[in-house]
Design brief:
There is one protein chain. By secondary structure, the chain is of the alpha+beta class. The chain has one domain: Glutaredoxin. The chain has 4 helices and 4 strands, in the order H-E-H-E-H-E-E-H. The protein has a 4-stranded mixed beta sheet with strand order 2-1-3-4, with helices on one face. It starts with a helix and ends in an 8-residue tail after the last helix.
Length: 114
């Protein structure tokens, strides 16, 4: 019986890991036109998404010069800003997203270190 219990526990943890691997990410990146900082943030985020979230993310890039009302609606006060809408909790990351480890932590893909 002990072996059977061990198998079901392993199956449960494998199921949980499989669920996390298929979780969809909904991301919105706010940028200011084609500035160097905005282009860097877009490139950095796309690289991170393709490496860590390939096939399971939706990314919307919002140019605040073209859609200024979106700033107020989503309460964005600095640009570039990345908003992770799903999976919950909602998270905001500000900057050019060049610090990969911090972006991964912000997205909930790695545990935070103290």
């Amino acid at each position: 019986m002990t072996q059977k219990k061990s198998r079901s526990t392993r199956g449960t943890s494998e199921s949980a890991a499989a669920g996390m691997a298929t979780e969809r990410y909904v991301l919105t990146l706010y940028v200011t036109g084609a500035t160097a900082g905005s282009l860097r943030a877009i490139a950095n985020l796309k690289a991170i998404c393709e490496q860590y979230l390939k096939g399971r993310y939706q990314l919307e890039v919002v140019d605040v010069y073209r859609q200024p009302a979106r700033l107020r609606r989503d309460q964005v006060v600095a640009v570039p800003t990345l908003i992770k809408k799903l999976p919950v909790p909602l998270r905001l990351l500000v900057g050019d997203l060049s610090r990969t480890e911090q972006v991964l932590q912000g997205l909930g893909l790695v545990a935070r270190t103290s």
